[in-house]
């Protein structure tokens, strides 16, 4: 499905600001895999997503999606097949456009040249898929009027509507209050189960990373330092993860805050 081979990313190479953000990453993801990505701040998680989505070019290595080498494909082309949601709820939708226009635009994704049209059938479809988040009667409201949680739910719905081959979720509930985070996460789980999406999800919540999905990877200093899947993953505990992180890093942390939130 997704094959990442020897991917390295160096920012500002050859300067005093040189930063090796990814070092020789190798990762194979199968169709239907749901991979949780954990690791401390600056460990390279978002950079890995940026390489997959084509936001920045790789310094070395190759990325293949469904047998097609996409290493040099521009971001907008990859976006037809790769859906991405960020932490910031304002990023995935246009504030000054209505919910239905945002949705129609996202439906059109991948169908270049088709005229933008919004008929009754589409509106009914939108209403139906907005119902679980209670937005079904607000099709004409501008997205800027929505709360952060509602907006993130809409972004998720839009990303899933275009049936991406791969869904990249970058701490997409981190900016929401606990109640909204739970709603958006439940929606995420529902869509992934229902549509059998292949997905990668960055989270700082280790308990959640253990419970969600079938695979887990831990990153540190631009490398994948731990991988677990299936039963091994399900049987992990947060103290296990912290112990293994300490062992690999050969460092001691006062508590799991070091791994969860602080840069280290
Ligand atoms: N566009 C960029 N230009 C220069 N350096 C960058 C850029 N993006 C990331 N970096 C650097 O690469 C390293 C990895 O950053 P990245 O954003 O991938 O970390 P992360 O694991 O997503 O962290 P967080 O948990 O804080 O989101 C960091 O040292 C960061 O400063
Ligand atoms: Mg990040």
What order do the helices and strands come in, and which of them pair?
Blueprint: E1 2-11, E2 19-29, E3 34-39, H1 45-53, E4 60-65, E5 68-69, H2 75-78, E6 82-85, H3 99-108, H4 120-130, H5 148-161, E7 166-170, H6 178-195, E8 198-202, H7 206-211, E9 215-220, E10 223-229, H8 230-234, H9 238-249, H10 257-260
Bound molecules: adenosine-5'-triphosphate and magnesium ion.
Adenosine-5'-triphosphate is lined by residues 11, 19, 21, 39, 41-47.
Helix and strand element order = EEEHEEHEHHHEHEHEEHHH
Spell out which ligands are present: adenosine-5'-triphosphate, magnesium ion
Q: Specify the helix fraction band.
A: 25-40%
Count of separate structural domains: 1
Task: Round the mean pLDDT to the nearest integer and report it.
Answer: 89
- The CATH architecture: 3-Layer(aba) Sandwich
Structure characterization notes:
The chain has 264 residues and is of the alpha/beta class. The protein has one domain (2-256): P-loop containing nucleotide triphosphate hydrolases (Rossmann fold, 3-Layer(aba) Sandwich). The chain has ten helices and ten strands. The protein has helices at residues 45-53, 75-78, 99-108, 120-130, 148-161, 178-195, 206-211, 230-234, 238-249, 257-260; strands at residues 2-11, 19-29, 34-39, 60-65, 68-69, 82-85, 166-170, 198-202, 215-220, 223-229. The strands form two sheets. Strands 6-7-8-3-9-10 form a six-stranded mixed β-sheet, sandwiched between helices. Strands 2-1-4-5 form a four-stranded antiparallel β-sheet, with helices on one face. The longest helix is centred in the last third of the chain and has 18 residues, at 178-195. The mean pLDDT is 89. The structure holds adenosine-5'-triphosphate (ATP) and magnesium ion. Adenosine-5'-triphosphate is lined by residues 11, 19, 21, 39, 41-47.
């Amino acid at each position: 499905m997704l094959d990442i081979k020897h991917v390295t990313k160096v920012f500002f190479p050859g300067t005093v600001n040189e930063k090796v953000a990814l070092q020789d990453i190798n990762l194979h993801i199968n169709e239907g895999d749901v991979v949780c990505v954990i690791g401390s701040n600056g460990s390279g998680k978002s950079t890995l997503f940026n390489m997959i989505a084509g936001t920045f070019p790789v310094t070395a290595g190759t990325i293949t999606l469904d047998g097609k080498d996409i290493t040099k494909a521009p971001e907008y082309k990859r976006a037809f097949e790769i859906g991405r949601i960020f932490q910031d709820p304002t990023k995935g939708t246009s504030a000054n456009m209505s919910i239905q226009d945002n949705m129609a635009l996202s439906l059109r994704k991948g169908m270049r040249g088709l005229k933008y049209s919004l008929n009754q059938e589409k509106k009914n479809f939108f209403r139906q898929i907005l119902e679980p988040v209670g937005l079904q009667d607000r099709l004409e409201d501008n997205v800027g009027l929505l709360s952060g949680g509602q907006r993130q739910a809409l972004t998720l719905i839009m990303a899933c509507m275009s049936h991406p081959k791969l869904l990249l979720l970058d701490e997409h509930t981190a900016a929401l209050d606990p109640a909204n985070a739970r709603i958006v996460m439940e929606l995420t789980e529902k869509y992934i189960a229902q549509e059998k999406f292949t997905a990668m999800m960055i989270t700082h919540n280790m308990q959640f990373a253990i419970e969600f999905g079938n695979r887990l990877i831990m990153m540190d200093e631009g490398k994948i330092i731990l991988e677990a899947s299936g039963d091994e993953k399900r049987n992990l505990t947060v103290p296990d993860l912290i112990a293994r992180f300490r062992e690999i890093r050969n460092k001691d942390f006062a508590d799991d805050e070091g791994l969860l939130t602080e840069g280290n």
